[in-house]
Amino acid sequence: MPRHIYQLRVSLAEVSPPVWRRVQIPGGYTLDRVHRVFQHVFGWQDCHLHSFEIDGVSYGVPDPDGELVLRDELDHRLDAVAGKGSRFHYTYDFGDWWQHDVTVEDVFAADPDERYPLCLGGERSGPPEDVGGPYGYRRFLAALADRDDPEHSAMLGWVGRAFDPAAFDATRATTLARRMS
Protein backbone atom coordinates (compact mmCIF):
# COMPACT_ATOMS: atom_id res chain seq x y z
CA MET A 1 0.00 0.00 0.00
CA PRO A 2 1.51 3.36 -0.98
CA ARG A 3 2.30 6.00 1.60
CA HIS A 4 -0.08 8.95 1.44
CA ILE A 5 1.17 12.52 1.51
CA TYR A 6 -0.89 15.39 2.83
CA GLN A 7 -0.40 18.79 1.24
CA LEU A 8 -1.24 21.45 3.83
CA ARG A 9 -1.52 25.19 3.62
CA VAL A 10 -0.74 26.67 7.04
CA SER A 11 -1.43 30.38 7.61
CA LEU A 12 -0.97 32.57 10.68
CA ALA A 13 -4.32 34.08 11.68
CA GLU A 14 -4.62 37.83 12.33
CA VAL A 15 -1.26 38.65 10.73
CA SER A 16 -0.98 41.05 7.82
CA PRO A 17 0.70 40.91 5.38
CA PRO A 18 0.05 37.15 5.36
CA VAL A 19 2.57 34.66 6.73
CA TRP A 20 1.93 31.17 5.35
CA ARG A 21 3.55 27.88 4.33
CA ARG A 22 2.64 25.04 1.99
CA VAL A 23 4.02 21.72 3.19
CA GLN A 24 3.80 18.07 2.22
CA ILE A 25 3.79 15.67 5.16
CA PRO A 26 3.32 11.90 5.34
CA GLY A 27 -0.20 11.08 6.50
CA GLY A 28 1.32 8.53 8.89
CA TYR A 29 2.96 11.28 10.96
CA THR A 30 1.56 11.54 14.46
CA LEU A 31 0.39 15.01 15.42
CA ASP A 32 3.52 15.58 17.53
CA ARG A 33 5.59 15.20 14.34
CA VAL A 34 3.22 17.53 12.44
CA HIS A 35 3.77 20.04 15.26
CA ARG A 36 7.55 19.78 14.83
CA VAL A 37 7.27 20.35 11.06
CA PHE A 38 5.15 23.46 11.68
CA GLN A 39 7.67 24.71 14.25
CA HIS A 40 10.55 24.52 11.81
CA VAL A 41 8.86 25.87 8.70
CA PHE A 42 7.71 28.94 10.67
CA GLY A 43 11.02 29.41 12.45
CA TRP A 44 9.58 28.78 15.90
CA GLN A 45 11.80 27.26 18.59
CA ASP A 46 9.27 24.96 20.34
CA CYS A 47 9.53 26.87 23.64
CA HIS A 48 5.80 26.91 24.43
CA LEU A 49 2.72 24.73 24.68
CA HIS A 50 0.66 23.99 21.60
CA SER A 51 -2.53 22.24 20.55
CA PHE A 52 -4.48 21.13 17.51
CA GLU A 53 -8.25 21.53 17.25
CA ILE A 54 -9.69 19.20 14.65
CA ASP A 55 -13.44 18.67 14.32
CA GLY A 56 -14.05 19.99 17.83
CA VAL A 57 -11.45 17.72 19.44
CA SER A 58 -8.26 19.11 21.01
CA TYR A 59 -4.94 17.27 20.71
CA GLY A 60 -1.60 18.06 22.29
CA VAL A 61 0.70 17.12 25.13
CA PRO A 62 -1.49 15.80 27.97
CA ASP A 63 -1.71 18.13 30.96
CA PRO A 64 -0.56 16.26 34.09
CA ASP A 65 -2.74 18.55 36.23
CA GLY A 66 -5.78 17.82 34.08
CA GLU A 67 -6.60 21.50 33.56
CA LEU A 68 -6.48 21.18 29.77
CA VAL A 69 -8.49 18.37 28.21
CA LEU A 70 -6.33 17.20 25.33
CA ARG A 71 -6.06 13.90 23.55
CA ASP A 72 -2.46 12.75 23.39
CA GLU A 73 -0.98 13.86 20.07
CA LEU A 74 1.41 10.89 20.17
CA ASP A 75 -1.57 8.56 19.76
CA HIS A 76 -3.14 10.21 16.71
CA ARG A 77 -1.93 10.22 13.13
CA LEU A 78 -2.71 12.98 10.65
CA ASP A 79 -4.42 10.52 8.28
CA ALA A 80 -6.74 9.36 11.11
CA VAL A 81 -8.01 12.84 12.03
CA ALA A 82 -8.06 14.77 8.73
CA GLY A 83 -8.78 14.20 5.04
CA LYS A 84 -8.69 16.14 1.80
CA GLY A 85 -10.57 19.42 2.26
CA SER A 86 -10.35 19.31 6.06
CA ARG A 87 -9.72 22.53 7.92
CA PHE A 88 -8.36 22.75 11.44
CA HIS A 89 -6.40 24.95 13.82
CA TYR A 90 -2.96 24.66 15.31
CA THR A 91 -2.21 27.02 18.20
CA TYR A 92 1.31 27.69 19.41
CA ASP A 93 2.20 29.61 22.60
CA PHE A 94 -0.90 29.99 24.72
CA GLY A 95 0.40 33.38 25.95
CA ASP A 96 1.03 34.95 22.54
CA TRP A 97 -1.71 32.80 20.97
CA TRP A 98 -0.38 32.15 17.51
CA GLN A 99 -3.31 30.50 15.80
CA HIS A 100 -2.58 28.82 12.49
CA ASP A 101 -5.37 28.03 10.03
CA VAL A 102 -4.61 24.70 8.34
CA THR A 103 -6.24 23.41 5.16
CA VAL A 104 -5.64 19.95 3.70
CA GLU A 105 -5.33 20.93 0.05
CA ASP A 106 -4.61 17.46 -1.31
CA VAL A 107 -3.86 13.86 -0.39
CA PHE A 108 -1.89 11.72 -2.84
CA ALA A 109 0.46 8.76 -3.12
CA ALA A 110 4.05 9.54 -2.17
CA ASP A 111 6.55 10.04 -4.97
CA PRO A 112 9.14 7.28 -4.38
CA ASP A 113 11.89 9.63 -5.54
CA GLU A 114 10.97 12.43 -3.10
CA ARG A 115 11.91 12.90 0.55
CA TYR A 116 9.29 14.20 2.98
CA PRO A 117 8.44 16.45 4.72
CA LEU A 118 8.76 19.07 2.04
CA CYS A 119 8.11 22.82 2.18
CA LEU A 120 6.89 23.87 -1.25
CA GLY A 121 6.61 27.57 -0.54
CA GLY A 122 5.35 30.34 1.64
CA GLU A 123 5.57 34.03 2.30
CA ARG A 124 7.31 36.15 4.88
CA SER A 125 9.36 35.31 7.93
CA GLY A 126 7.67 33.80 10.95
CA PRO A 127 7.46 36.22 13.88
CA PRO A 128 10.12 35.95 16.59
CA GLU A 129 9.31 34.03 19.77
CA ASP A 130 7.68 36.02 22.59
CA VAL A 131 6.95 39.10 20.49
CA GLY A 132 3.44 39.38 21.94
CA GLY A 133 1.16 37.64 19.45
CA PRO A 134 -0.38 39.32 16.41
CA TYR A 135 -0.73 42.72 18.16
CA GLY A 136 2.85 42.62 19.49
CA TYR A 137 4.15 41.57 16.09
CA ARG A 138 2.43 44.53 14.39
CA ARG A 139 3.99 46.85 16.99
CA PHE A 140 7.39 45.16 16.54
CA LEU A 141 7.28 45.59 12.74
CA ALA A 142 6.24 49.25 13.04
CA ALA A 143 9.12 49.97 15.45
CA LEU A 144 11.66 48.22 13.21
CA ALA A 145 10.48 50.11 10.12
CA ASP A 146 10.70 53.56 11.73
CA ARG A 147 14.13 54.68 13.00
CA ASP A 148 12.39 57.56 14.81
CA ASP A 149 10.10 55.22 16.74
CA PRO A 150 11.01 55.43 20.46
CA GLU A 151 11.12 51.60 20.60
CA HIS A 152 13.25 51.12 17.45
CA SER A 153 16.58 50.57 19.22
CA ALA A 154 15.05 48.48 21.99
CA MET A 155 13.34 46.19 19.48
CA LEU A 156 16.56 45.77 17.47
CA GLY A 157 18.40 44.87 20.66
CA TRP A 158 15.62 42.56 21.82
CA VAL A 159 15.46 40.51 18.63
CA GLY A 160 19.26 40.15 18.81
CA ARG A 161 19.73 39.50 15.11
CA ALA A 162 18.94 40.96 11.75
CA PHE A 163 15.25 40.39 11.11
CA ASP A 164 13.80 40.69 7.62
CA PRO A 165 10.02 40.24 7.84
CA ALA A 166 9.79 39.66 4.08
CA ALA A 167 12.38 36.87 4.00
CA PHE A 168 11.44 33.24 3.53
CA ASP A 169 13.52 30.35 2.18
CA ALA A 170 11.54 27.18 1.40
CA THR A 171 14.71 25.13 0.86
CA ARG A 172 16.01 26.02 4.32
CA ALA A 173 12.58 25.35 5.84
CA THR A 174 12.57 21.89 4.21
CA THR A 175 16.07 21.14 5.51
CA LEU A 176 15.13 22.11 9.08
CA ALA A 177 11.81 20.22 8.96
CA ARG A 178 13.53 17.05 7.73
CA ARG A 179 16.31 17.29 10.28
CA MET A 180 14.09 17.96 13.27
CA SER A 181 10.86 16.05 12.61
UniProtKB/TrEMBL annotation:
Coiled coil: none
One Pfam family hit: PRiA4_ORF3
Residues spanning the membrane: none
Domain Plasmid pRiA4b Orf3-like: 5-170
Organism superkingdom: Bacteria
InterPro entries named among the record's database cross-references: MM3350-like_sf, Plasmid_pRiA4b_Orf3-like
PANTHER family linked to this entry: LEXA REPRESSOR-RELATED, TNPR PROTEIN
Name listed for the protein in its UniProt record: Plasmid pRiA4b ORF-3 family protein
